[in-house]
Amino acid sequence: MISRNTTTLLKRLSPTLRIAMPNSHLYAHHGSPFKRTESTQSLISLNRNPFKITVIGSGNWGTTIAKVVAENTQHFPHLFQKDVNMWVFQEKIDGENLTDIINTKHQNVKYLPNIDLPENLIANPDLLDSIKGADILVFNVPHQFLPKIVESLKGQVKPWVRAISCLKGFEVGKKGVQLLSSYITDELGIQCGALSGANLAPEVAKEHWSETTVAYQLPKDYKGEGLDVDHKVLKALFHRPYFHVNVIDDVAGISIAGALKNVVALGCGFVEGLGWGNNASAAIQRIGLGEIIKFGQTFFPESRVQTYYQESAGVADLITTCSGGRNVKVAKHMAKTKKNAFEAEKELLNGQSAQGIITCKEVHEWLYTCEMTDEFPLFEVVYQIVYNNFPMEGLPEMIEELGPIEE
Amino acid sequence: MISRNTTTLLKRLSPTLRIAMPNSHLYAHHGSPFKRTESTQSLISLNRNPFKITVIGSGNWGTTIAKVVAENTQHFPHLFQKDVNMWVFQEKIDGENLTDIINTKHQNVKYLPNIDLPENLIANPDLLDSIKGADILVFNVPHQFLPKIVESLKGQVKPWVRAISCLKGFEVGKKGVQLLSSYITDELGIQCGALSGANLAPEVAKEHWSETTVAYQLPKDYKGEGLDVDHKVLKALFHRPYFHVNVIDDVAGISIAGALKNVVALGCGFVEGLGWGNNASAAIQRIGLGEIIKFGQTFFPESRVQTYYQESAGVADLITTCSGGRNVKVAKHMAKTKKNAFEAEKELLNGQSAQGIITCKEVHEWLYTCEMTDEFPLFEVVYQIVYNNFPMEGLPEMIEELGPIEE
Lengths: 407, 407
Prior knowledge:
- The structure is a homodimer.
- The first copy, chain A, contains 18 helices and 12 strands.
- In chain A, the strands form 3 sheets. Chain A has an 8-stranded mixed sheet with strand order 5-2-1-6-7-10-11-12.
- The N and C termini of chain A lie far apart (46 Å).
- In chain A, strand 6, helix 6 (146-153) and strand 7 (162-165) form a beta-alpha-beta unit.
- Chain A folds into 2 domains: 42-249, Rossmann fold (3-Layer(aba) Sandwich), CATH 3.40.50.720; 253-402, Orthogonal Bundle (N-(1-d-carboxylethyl)-l-norvaline Dehydrogenase, domain 2).
- Chain A is globular and about 60 Å long.
- Chain A is of the alpha/beta class.
- Chains A and B meet through helix 1, helix 11, helix 12, helix 13 and helix 16 of A and helix 1, helix 12, helix 13, helix 14 and helix 17 of B.
- Chains A, B: The active site is at residue 261.
- Chains A, B: It catalyses: sn-glycerol 3-phosphate + NAD(+) = dihydroxyacetone phosphate + NADH + H(+).
- Chains A, B: Residues 52-217 form the Glycerol-3-phosphate dehydrogenase NAD-dependent N-terminal domain.
């Protein structure tokens, strides 16, 4: 039994199914078979020059997003200028500039090897030159480099420029929690949204199907449809057949989920390392999701509960992160070897850090200031395990004692 | 920085941390260190004889739950009669009755080998004899045996008896969706709740920490606190230091989640088998959670959205099920070998079946009757892949085309 819509769709797709996951690069240059999305987006008409895009950052996630964007600027010439600039922190590879390699070989051999990049993606080592004439800035650099980059851009960006931050997370200080998008807005005076989702970069780069969430609020000086960046424009900019985008308003929600999931992943690593199995890991994720929601509702009451359990940037990113990655690895190693977090990081991560270790401390300090540590038992226990050698076997009891999520 | 409550707790726990996960059998007979729970439950006083419990079913999950229950009846003598009956479908093991083995060796050598059972758990091969004098029946048999058992019990159960169903799921016919707990209520005339959670039986049997959800609504003839089964009594009956219980009202919510997760798990198996990776599996789980919520809201509007994203029986059970188990295995095998669902089942499951294959058909037929297949694109695509050989590579496009979850 098949309903009418389904029948039509099946007819259209079979027997010559034109879908090509995960080899969808086949149609990257020949038009997408995803008719509905395409036609919806074709309906957007601009009453101004097409938008010029610059991606700031060229690590594996930065380059992957730049690839996505440059594919779409080819696809929607009425909306976007074809050439996309990508600011690259200059490095020499076998004596050659990384930017020159990217611009001739069309691969980022250092950070995203073996992935072909569109020829309209132009690497540029000069930050200020790369943003010349840009209407949309896509920030995608490691968290710790953001302040320096923002400092360099101060006074150089026109106020009508719009931005999307692909950095996950927030900064927590004694004054409170600041979203990275708000930081960009405050420092540069431009409207900034965020992109976050269950997106392990290598899988997206290979065009394996995934989803993401883009969050953006129209600014007070929004110039109107066809004149300014809005949800439709952002969908056209980021959505690909292999990278399904949902655009929402809730910048705070997706940023909070993106940061706190790393703390939850540490908890999953502990119980996995102790050999407690799938039930225990699922329990940690459930409790973690609850605390993420509570954190959001407490400190960003404007964020929507649905964002956490319904968006790719919420529950899906939590699941992906808790099924592997740096935080899980470090925490498992701690459980198995009884080494502390910093020894485990040193042994496993070759000088890099597991973000959850930094975040759980920031979160603890902020909750302590608010006298609310007891209301976030999982976050608190993870902090106590990492920083005060609390025995991780006590995790279930601590969670039970400190208090259930809803009371 | 540690808050006051945390300090007290840490003092109490360290350095002689009395927790014993996963070896918590150490205190199973010596009193739990979980003071708060224990003292809360000790406050319940009965104005009647202690409740007598019978567990109906002795597979691996049945025996595991019987073990949990029998530990608690030892622990709360003022609430429960110590001896717990477990109805066992009689089998001969090397010429000996399975019930005799259980009652002398205190192990269910066939379905839960190497796990010691409490001596107050009494195996009984006679169904009617096993329920004599019982105040609470815990149903825990394979779905397909339920009708016959219920038939045998008809007219034999006093109306004031209460029941909990540990069977996952519901029956969907052309008339609609019936919860198994409602089926028990309708057939036997007794109030019935449900128990469901992220509970792989072998892990719970080994006393590795996990969580579960019990749902129960007070009946119209509820006799009052101290006289009848209520949420506190059920918490005392099922909660263990290694098995954390949350008791809620929403029987429909946990039953729906318990059934539909198996359909989602098939979807995860497909994308895993295609080699699409963690992002894709997380996307399927996200979409699946959304469709589970929508299904619940549509057909059981009294069920609460929070149950799905906040309870062990909701999001946690979904995550556990999608990280392994029969449904994922069969679907992966289909993707890798291009065999159909029934061939894959035959090759992998040795005559058993993957529940999602039955459920996705029942769900499709019901949604088709309601002309709503298009509103549940994941459920529909899984059905089309299993029953109509729809190419699974088309899954993302079908989901995109049939319509987003929220519009």
